[in-house]
Prior knowledge:
Blueprint: H1 3-10, H2 16-27, H3 30-53, H4 57-68, H5 77-100, E1 110-113, E2 119-122, E3 128-131, E4 136-140, E5 148-160, E6 169-173, E7 176-180, E8 184-189, E9 193-200, E10 203-207, E11 210-214, E12 218-223, E13 229-233, H6 241-244, E14 246-253, H7 254-265, E15 268-271, E16 280-286, H8 290-301, E17 305-308, E18 311-314
Parallel strand pairs: 5-6, 15-18
Antiparallel strand pairs: 1-4, 2-3, 3-5, 4-5, 5-8, 6-7, 7-10, 8-9, 9-12, 10-11, 12-13, 14-16, 17-18
Helix pairs in contact: 3-5, 4-5
Amino acid sequence: xxxxxxxxxxxxxxxxxxAATVRRWIASHPDHERHYRQLQAIWEASRSLAVExxxxxxxxxxxxVQRRDQPQxxxxxxxxxxxxxxxxxxxxxxxxxxxxxxxxDGLIGSTxxxxxxxxxxxxxxxxxxxxxxxxxxxxxxxxxxxxxxxxLRSGEAFFxxxxxxxxxxxxxxxxxxxTVVGTSFHVRRNPEETQVIVETGKVxxxxxxxxxxxxxxxxxxxxxxxxxxxxxxVPDQLHNYYVSKQFVLDNTPLWRIxxxxxxxxxxxxAIARPELRDLPMTTTLRQGSLNEVLNIIxxxxxxxxxxxxxxxxxx
Length: 315
């Protein structure tokens, strides 16, 4: 997609046909939407810079807006060239600010979402995230703030944070705030709880006036409705399956295996007999198809596994 056409769309200077073309392009791929959102963010940031540095861009923009909002406004390429030049000027100013400022690593915010798939991405600051199925988060690092910010809207993600003591890495999960400098950890959010599990380093978790610091192998589950903090040692490595692509079982009871498989494959698993629930299993299962995993479990214990769609019965 030509950036000139995107600029026209951003400035509401496209024809109806051009606008429809841009909307289809944005909707066709997450990277297209991200690119357009970056153009929007660049313009917003550039207006802030213009105010601080007392340059003429803001005045020029105001004149343009007044002209743009007049009834029966003309659609001529002269105004488009002015707007495009103004946008490029502001972009150049931003680049200079980012490169010459104290950090030298400014970012534009980005949204990351997954459907029924696991996704790994590298953020603009060098941190690596792995999003489990149906996760949604937004990352931003403003040149005007001394921190990197994540809003975990839903789902689960594993963070490998690049160390930067000047800019803490802060995750907002509803009313729960997770703050780190450089470490690796999991965060899972559902409507009532946020769970944090630390792999390496230290993580600070706060909500309202309460706070806890976690080290490797520790976890906390925060009930955002009651405010309760449930701290404990991590009992196994099954929380890491979506990153490692395998299920590490170490004398793990069958009920726990079924619980993890439900989340990993989006199914309901019932254990038909109570005496089967605590049967232990020690092995490492590759995260292949659900049928493959269920067949291995059935053969190991000599049990029958029945599956009907998203319903599984072990008996």
